[in-house]
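Milestone 3.1: sequence recovery, worked example.
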């Protein structure tokens, strides 16, 4: 996982091994990321031009398989589905994503 603990340039990106898997919340899924996008918006978050509470995992776009899904799921998504999403946290092995942010 890549984590930002302090704002700055590329030097603020820190590789962290054994980063904890997020805890599942109602209305969310955990995605096991396979691909992530690198965009200018990621540099804006790193520099602090766009706000996020420190520390945070950057990355606004990801594609991966649903690893876990909340029990209140009333959608058509199932564990194992490959989906795309747009929310912070894509530079991690696992990302907690609201079900409403998923595209199949």
């Amino acid at each position: 996982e890549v984590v930002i603990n302090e704002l700055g340039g590329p030097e603020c990106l820190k590789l962290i091994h054994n980063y904890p898997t997020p805890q599942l919340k109602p209305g969310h899924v955990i995605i096991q990321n396979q691909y992530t996008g690198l965009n200018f918006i990621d540099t804006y978050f790193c520099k602090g031009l766009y706000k996020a509470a420190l520390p945070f995992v950057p990355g606004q776009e990801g594609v991966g398989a649903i690893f876990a899904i909340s029990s209140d799921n009333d959608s058509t998504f199932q564990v194992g589905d490959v989906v795309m999403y747009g929310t912070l946290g894509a530079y991690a092995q696992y990302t907690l994503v609201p079900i409403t942010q998923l595209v199949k």
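Residues 60 and 83 are 14 Å apart (CA to CA). DSSP finds one helix and seven strands in the chain.
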